[in-house]
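lol forgot to send this yesterday, sorry. C-alpha cells for the thing we talked abt
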C-alpha cells in the first residue's frame, strides 16, 4: 500500500510540475507587461473569491507582470444610500448623482472599497497603493449626458444625470512612476471635471481608458457571467468586428454592452487583447492567462 501511495503522490507532484511548465511560455511572453484589470461583481463581495483575486494579483506581480486595478462598487453605494435614507435612481442603467449622492459615492469607492482591496493585496504579500482619479489629475473628465425615449412624445430627450462623467484624458505618468517602484495601483473610478468638480464614472470605461493610456498588453474585465454568450454558449474568442455585430443584433445586451464597448475602445486605443471573465470562478485570472484552454471570452482586434 505504501508503494502505491508513493506512486500516486509522485504522479500528483508531476502533475503540478506540468502545470508550471505549461505556464512558462506565458510568463516569458508577459514579463514586464501591464495588465489592467476591472474588478467587480461577486469577486469583490464573497470572502473566498476576494482572497483568490488578491493572491492572483500578487502572483502576477512577483513574476514580473504589472497589474493595475480599477474597481467598481455600485451595490455597496446603493446599500449605503439606503442606510442614509436616500433612494438610488437610475436612467438607462446610469446612476443619477446629485451632490449628496456624490459624497456617498466618493466615500464608498475612494474610502471603503479602495482601501479594502489595498489591504487584501498587502495582506497576501503585495505592495498596493490606492488612488482616486482626482489624485495627481489622474482622470480628467467631463459631464456625461444620456438620451432617454420620452413616453409622451416618443422622441429621444437629453437627460442630465448630475455629477456623472466620462473620461476626457488619463494622465499615465503617476501610474508609470508607481510601476517603477513596483507598486500595484488600485484606482477608484472618480474623475475631476473642468471646474474641479468630482464626477462619478463607469468603472468599465475607466479601465478601458487606463489600459489605452498605458498601452497595456491586456484589459481584463471580471463580471458575473461566463463570458459573451451566443445561443447559451460561451464564445471563447471573437474579433472586434463580430463583437460589434453582437451588440447590433441584440445578442449582447444590458450590462454586457458597456463591458464589450470598453473592450472595443481599448483595442482601438492600442491594447493587445481584451478578456471578459467570470469572476465567480476562483483564480480565473490565472486560468485565463496561463493555460491553453483559458476561461471566458477573449476579444481581439
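and heres what i got for the seq, position by position
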Amino acid at each position: 500500500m505504501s508503494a502505491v501511495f508513493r506512486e500516486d503522490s509522485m504522479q500528483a507532484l508531476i502533475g503540478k510540475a506540468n502545470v508550471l511548465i505549461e505556464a512558462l511560455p506565458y510568463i516569458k511572453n508577459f514579463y514586464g507587461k501591464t495588465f489592467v484589470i476591472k474588478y467587480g461583481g461577486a469577486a469583490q463581495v464573497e470572502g473566498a473569491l476576494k482572497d483568490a483575486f488578491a493572491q492572483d494579483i500578487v502572483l502576477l506581480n512577483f513574476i514580473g507582470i504589472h497589474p493595475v486595478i480599477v474597481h467598481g462598487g455600485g451595490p455597496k453605494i446603493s446599500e449605503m444610500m439606503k442606510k442614509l435614507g436616500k433612494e438610488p435612481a437610475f436612467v438607462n442603467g446610469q446612476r443619477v448623482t446629485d451632490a449628496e449622492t456624490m459624497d456617498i459615492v466618493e466615500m464608498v469607492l475612494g474610502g471603503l472599497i479602495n482601501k479594502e482591496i489595498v489591504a487584501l493585496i498587502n495582506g497576501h504579500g503585495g505592495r498596493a497603493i490606492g488612488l482616486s482619479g482626482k489624485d495627481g489629475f489622474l482622470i480628467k473628465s467631463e459631464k456625461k449626458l444620456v438620451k432617454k425615449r420620452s413616453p409622451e412624445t416618443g422622441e429621444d430627450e437629453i437627460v442630465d444625470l448630475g455629477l456623472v462623467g466620462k473620461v476626457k484624458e488619463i494622465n499615465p505618468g503617476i501610474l508609470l512612476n508607481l510601476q517603477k517602484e513596483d507598486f500595484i495601483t488600485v484606482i477608484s473610478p472618480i474623475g475631476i471635471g473642468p471646474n474641479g468638480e468630482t464626477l462619478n464614472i463607469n468603472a468599465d470605461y475607466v479601465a478601458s481608458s487606463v489600459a489605452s493610456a498605458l498601452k497595456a498588453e491586456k484589459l481584463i474585465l471580471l463580471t458575473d457571467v461566463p463570458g459573451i454568450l451566443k445561443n447559451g454558449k460561451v464564445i471563447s474568442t471573437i474579433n472586434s468586428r463580430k463583437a460589434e455585430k453582437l451588440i447590433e443584433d441584440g445578442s449582447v445586451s444590458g450590462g454586457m454592452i458597456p463591458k464589450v464597448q470598453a473592450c472595443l475602445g481599448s483595442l482601438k486605443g492600442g491594447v493587445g487583447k481584451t478578456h471578459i471573465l467570470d469572476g465567480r470562478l476562483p483564480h480565473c485570472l490565472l486560468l485565463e492567462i496561463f493555460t491553453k484552454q483559458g476561461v471566458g471570452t477573449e476579444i481581439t482586434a
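The first strand starts at residue 34 and ends at 39. anyway ping me if u want another try
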